[in-house]
Amino acid sequence: MPIEGIKFSSASQDMHPFGIFEAAMVFPHPAGIIRLKVEFVVINNCASQHFILGHDYLNIYGNDINNHKDRYFIIGENKRQKFGFPLEKREITVIRQLKNVHQEKFVSDQDAFASDNEPRGTIKGHEVDIIPNVERPYPPLLQRPAYPASPRARESLESHINELIKLRVLRTVGHNEVEVTTPLIITWHNDKLRMVGDFRALNTNTIPDRYSIPRIHETLTQL
């Protein structure tokens, strides 16, 4: 059947739908079998050798999306002739081999990861040094007061900060360490707090990292 008023696109180009055809298919199901009428979109400027069946679509009807059993389907009225998608068992062996390789790599490079007794994100040899480009006393932009917040936001913010302190993502500072302050922006998403630091002033007054990265036109010239 023809199709109108619907647009399709891929990562590289626009797709021009030619039409839709329906196919009655039968899939194995824990309760026996399930019959579905599946619609496929025919793309005029994109040839494909495979039919694409979305896992989410099949999962809605309770199909086994992990291929614990071989899938099959029938075409037309001939219900005895079955077509399937065989599962290559050798893929499972490859996954187990890759798992062992990754475990060995993690053990050999364990110094690159933080242990249970260290704060999260601790990576030895890659510490980030924040060096300001101004001398003390710092300008008022680096000592800004907190933004106004509602009692609900303040209560949630204190709870969130205490949780981060317990996880050792943050730490409390002494009175002699309070030199640079930055306000926090509090946003809500699905009734959950999101704490965002306003570091625009700190970034402006910080010496940026500099790496000897070649220029793009020099790299293209060498190629």
TrEMBL record:
<protein>
    <recommendedName>
        <fullName>Reverse transcriptase domain-containing protein</fullName>
    </recommendedName>
</protein>
<dbReference type="InterPro" id="IPR043502">
    <property type="entry name" value="DNA/RNA_pol_sf"/>
</dbReference>
<dbReference type="InterPro" id="IPR043128">
    <property type="entry name" value="Rev_trsase/Diguanyl_cyclase"/>
</dbReference>
